[in-house]
Amino acid sequence: MKILVVEDEPDMLEVIHKYMQHEGFVCETAKNYRIASDKIYIYRYDIILLDLTLPDGNGLSLLQELKEKDPQAGVIIISAKNSIDEKIKGLDLGADDYITKPFHLAELNSRVKAIIRRKNFEGNREIVFNEIRIEPESMLVQVNDNPVELTKKEFDLLIYFANNKNRVVSKESIAEHLWGDYMDTADNFDFIYTHIKNLRKKLIEKGSGDYIKTIYGFGYKFTDH
């Protein structure tokens, strides 16, 4: 899962960034409106943690811009102001939640996970695809009740496929979603093939069907059709 933290306070930005990375998220940052606007135009995020008070623009305007581009993105507004008017405006513009500074990082993390479950997993704590069962929060994967040992990237890749089942996804979109900004320096996407090959092998060895289909010239599709 991929998060963008939009926050102009350097210390707060760094603390949230490190915490979310430690929780297993691909986490990127933006310290002002301009950088955040550029990133949401180029990339797609599962969750945006959005400070409303930015040095070069209004966070509510950024929220409106984001929702016009990607209505499905989850948004948690972060603000030092406990204003009911701001809360109402933010929620009316499409924000999913609102948290007021100061807050505990564990609470923020719980709210992020709740939005992800609601948006991507239909509110469930697990994903079931035929004989494959995935528990995202505990990083547990089972095939016919047999545990599958996956690396962090293999697990993230499986989640990405499960969230996009029956859709063709390109190598570029997989790389950008799982590695974030670091992909800007990549010469090619050959390493994606290695991760997919390893994931496919581990699932099949435990009795799974071969659901990862190569769509030559386009990318991959996770499907049982």
Task: Sum this structure up briefly.
By secondary structure, this protein is an alpha/beta fold. The protein is built from 8 helices and 14 strands.
Topology of helices and strands:
Elements: E1 2-6, H1 10-22, E2 26-30, H2 33-42, E3 47-51, E4 53-54, E5 57-58, H3 59-69, E6 74-79, H4 84-92, E7 97-100, H5 105-120, E8 127-129, E9 132-135, E10 140-143, E11 146-147, H6 152-163, E12 168-169, H7 171-179, H8 190-205, E13 212-215, E14 219-222
Parallel strand pairs: 1-2, 1-3, 3-6, 6-7
Antiparallel strand pairs: 4-5, 8-9, 9-10, 10-11, 12-14, 13-14
Report what the structure shows.
The protein has 225 residues and is α/β, with parallel strands linked by helices. The protein has eight helices and 14 strands. A hairpin with a 4-residue loop joins strand 9 (132-135) and strand 10.
**Might you state the CATH topology name of the largest domain?**
Rossmann fold
What is the count of DSSP helices, taking H or I runs of 4+ residues?
A: 8
Q: Care to count the β-strands?
A: 14
CATH superfamily of the largest domain: Response regulator
Find the structural class using helix and strand composition.
alpha/beta
User: What separation lies between the terminal Cα atoms?
Assistant: 26 Å
- Low-pLDDT residue spans: none
Rg calc: 18 Å
Assign the CATH class of the largest domain.
Alpha Beta
Strand residue content: 15-25%
Helical residue percent band = 40-55%
Mean pLDDT: 89
Shape-level CATH architecture of the largest domain: 3-Layer(aba) Sandwich
Shape: elongated
- Work out the count of structural domains: 2
**H/E order of the elements?**
EHEHEEEHEHEHEEEEHEHHEE
The oligomeric state is single chain
